[in-house]
Amino acid sequence: MLKSFLSAGLSCGHPLFIATQKCSPQNLAKELMPPVEDSAPDHTKSRHSETNDELKIAWRYQNTPQMDSTCNSYSSSSYNQVYDLSQTVSEETLAKADIHYFPESVDKNQFTYEELYSAISNLISDRHHVDRPTLKTVLRIGIQGIGTELWSGNIVLFLYKLSNLIRNSYACVFITLATSCMEPEIVSRCEHLSDLALRLDTLSSGDRDHYLNEYHGLFHIGKQCSLNSLGVHIPDSNDWGFRLKRRRFIIEKLHLPPELQDSKQREQDDSVPSISCGTGSKRSSALDF
């Protein structure tokens, strides 16, 4: 998701600020994806074509509304784009782009949050501040994997200062947290300081139910943005799942599949013993007499 966020800024011509210590930030920029010319994925096209076909078997459900599991992100607008995960942008595209990296050179093993904040603050004050903007385009800031031992300092204080800085600038920030290395109280305070909180829970083969076989994990919306609004938008569903294909990352609504005739639940319902008092019937239950 971080790569999709940065790839969207790269395709729109926005300046980027990439910060990471898991790898070189230059290598992370080389992994960004180009947009696909045809934004509508193949599975949405097939579902729309199936909707137009006449239902021949279940004719009684022909006039009922169809269930669409995909979120309405694939529209005809050129803003919503899909990025090919199997490809990376060319070196010429990266050379023409306005990208800033942190750290610029790996001269030590650990960096502080204060150093990261100073680098972002200097860039925003020079070019993207609301009072004196040099560039009115949105600066996209991507920070990967904070909360690990590779960073030192107070992460809550860093997010508090960063949120105040972003309020007065033409910039947006996407941050990934290493929650496995953090205490639950610190994670809760970080979510409180954010405008939007998302969480991905991967599913192993043993954790998947019969209706989650095609998904690789669950997608949770922990907090929604309520800036400049009287209320928070309430989605029509809170149950989402994601799956990763060779070329696309897909997020869909979760819903129970129809109960087929050969399902286990149907077999249990059919195997309920009947109570009888006739002498000619076979005794198949302790309740028979």
Automatic annotation (TrEMBL):
Compartment(s) of residence: Cytoplasm; Nucleus
UniProt record, GO biological process: tRNA wobble uridine modification
Pathway where this protein functions: tRNA modification; 5-methoxycarbonylmethyl-2-thiouridine-tRNA biosynthesis
Region of interest: Disordered: 34-53, 260-289
Keyword line: Cytoplasm, Nucleus, tRNA processing
Gene Ontology CC terms: cytoplasm; elongator holoenzyme complex; transcription elongation factor complex
Domain of life: Eukaryota
Annotated Basic and acidic residues bias: 40-53, 260-269
Biased composition range(s): Polar residues: 271-289
Pfam families cross-referenced by the UniProt entry: PAXNEB
Main subcellular localisation: cytoplasm
Family classification: Belongs to the ELP4 family.
Name of the protein in question: Elongator complex protein 4
Source species: Diaphorina citri
Lineage per the UniProt record: Eukaryota, Metazoa, Ecdysozoa, Arthropoda, Hexapoda
